[in-house]
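Worked problem 6 (solution included).
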Amino acid sequence: MKLYVKRVNAKGGVFTITVDSKDTVASLKGRIGGVLDLFPDAIRLLYQGHPLTNTEASLGSYGIKDSSRISVIHVPSIDTNSIVSKVLSSFLLDRCPANNLSAIAERYQIVSNLYRICCINKR
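Solution. The predicted structure is:
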């Protein structure tokens, strides 16, 4: 079945994704995360305004059918008590609004993880 997916509060249009009604919410989050370049744990899915909270449930169990619309909300997965957040806060607080710190920290974490995977593991 074909689903129409729209990211809430973001630029860009609707895209389609083909799934089976037996696919799980977790697999849908993974596929959507791949398209939007987001970690599956950092997104929340809504169908008809209701959150798809049970990641092991099938899409069919939520009543999702062909041509359904799925809304995606990006929820940054940054721990505000982490060292990265504390360092960024201390350096950037004067120059950067507090509501931007989590987005900056998430990007830093992604770059840091990529560096570790690409550069350190090759040594």
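Discussion: The helical segments are 25-36, 83-92, 98-120.
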